[in-house]
Design a protein that fits this description.
Elements (H helix, E strand, L loop, with lengths): L2 E7 L3 H10 L16 E7 L20 E5 L15 E5 L7 E4 L8 E2 L5 H5 L10 H4 L3 E9 L8 E14 L5 E8 L9 E10 L8 E5 L1 E4 L7 E11 L4 E4 L20 E9 L3 E9 L10 E7 L2 E9 L11 E6 L5 E4 L2 E5 L6 E9 L8 E6 L1 E9 L2 E8 L10 E7 L10 E7 L5 E5 L7 E7 L11 E2 L2 E7 L4 E2 L2 E2 L3 E2 L4 E9 L6 E8 L2 E9 L5 E7 L7 E8 L8 E2 L3 E5 L2
Parallel strand pairs: 23-30, 34-41
Antiparallel strand pairs: 1-2, 2-3, 3-13, 4-11, 4-15, 5-14, 6-8, 7-8, 7-13, 8-9, 9-10, 10-11, 12-13, 15-16, 17-18, 18-21, 19-20, 19-22, 22-23, 24-25, 25-28, 26-27, 26-29, 29-31, 32-35, 33-35, 35-38, 36-37, 36-39, 39-40, 39-41
Amino acid sequence: MRRRHLRVSAPLAVLVAVSMLATPPVAAAPQNLCDGPFCASVEITTFDAGAPTQPTTAAGQPVNLNLHVTDTSSTVATDPARWLAEVIVRPGTSSAKTMAVADPASLPLGSYLAGSSATAASCAPGLDGSGYATSCPAGYGTGHVQLTPIIPGSPTIAPFSFGVQSVTTGLNGVVAANLSIWIPGTTLLFPITATTPITFNPATANAGPKLELSVKLDLQPPPYGSSPASLNDLTLTLNGLVSEAATGPVSPAVPFLRHTLVCTDVTSSVQVNARGTQSVLAPVTQTINGCPTAPQLTSVAPVPGQPLAVTFAATPPVAAVPGRTASIEWVFGDGAKALTGATTTHTYPTSNAVLALATVVDSAGVRSTTVQVRIAGSRLRVKQAAGNRITGELADQDTGQGVAGQQVDAYACPSRNAPLSQCKPLGTGVTRTSGSYRIRIPEVTKKVTVVVAYAGTASKSATQPARFGAQRSLTVLPQPDITLKVSEKRVHPGATVRLSGKVTPGKKGKTVRLQGFIRGAWRSIGKATVSQQGTYAASYVVRVPKQPKVKVRAFLPGTAATFEATSPVKVIRIQR
């Protein structure tokens, strides 16, 4: 984690404020400007914004926000007038990702920070006060106290140590740090308890939220009366009160909820009031550490035979902090999401185009940047063009544009809803530039259910969309064979020509329609009935003005049991 320190002397406060506001902090360590007796140091530690809202004992556990306040004056121990008075933190001054302060009024009443009641109860000074640093998860530090005896006498200044047992929320959002204080030589059996307020100012339309921490308080150590004390060295963790906020104008965050991705630098500001004399405002850049690497997609592929099912695969996710584990959060784009390992399969309700999201999330809640996964929809059209030929078109469902170079397969299936594993392959076609395709299948002798399937398109890149598969079923009918003969191939206008043929298998009583290609279209020139032997015959009077020839054919309409059939075309030439 990166830290920024701010040390200023009171006479230089105004000059430093102007220069630091105008020039962003750089990576190099700042100069130590603390060359006089009035000296203060404030440090805001980078927080891992993906931290859970309650501390745990897990390895590498991050903190949410850590303030470190130190009075560096060499005369602080002998002059209470120089004790540090107030620290102000203004999160959320960046127009990018920001920190936000959860409205304490919306937090639950009581202790919410120390991890648990057991952890808070364990915040103890030890034999000499040094145990606070290791036993108090909410914070700890040292200070000085001016002791005035009840019996009139000279006041003395003594050092003390303290631990922050918990941070509590009271009515109307009043927040206070609850302290356990140990004054060597004075606190004999039990620590002294005290509180110091944390004032919260919510965000407005023109300013981000603000925290003010008072580090002056009054103690009542026996055998003394009320004595002023200063928390000259303070580390305070505000976990759950300060979190990340949405992009853009900041607003109080919902407590205990994370809102946005966190793997980015955050800019905040720290304002220091050194013993009530001067204020310095300076930007502080915080680098979010411990962020896992964004998912590396290996494949986004439709499941064969299941057009609405898609398998997402990525390299196994790895947490950036030792001791944590990582998973991938797949947000599928249809309202569902899953937290899994490197692979997952999801079935969509429809084949509409969707935008899925993949994010690595570790066991502490820290999130990587998100990878977008686009899945396009497919529209498949199909029809029986002949007894042994199926044609159709594959197009994008949204744009209607044909999808070229894709394989389309035909299967004979026991039913329309049968899985392809129960079907027999019949043939394959590849779509042309226009998206049209043609599949030649074996002739059928009885009607059969055929499923035409497009398996979809897999993708290995977030920049190239995958594509849903598609299936359409149709009933393929057997096609009769019909022949055609003409009695005369050369005739004069007005001559009569006999048209005859045979239908196999025989279709007794069916009507054969005879057609001639006249004036650019196939037009009816007669009809005939199929006999018991499957034959038919009819006469045609040739009346085709201004045409040197006429094409004729026989057409048998389709039925519920058979596909339509057309005879080979014959030509009758007309002599003038």
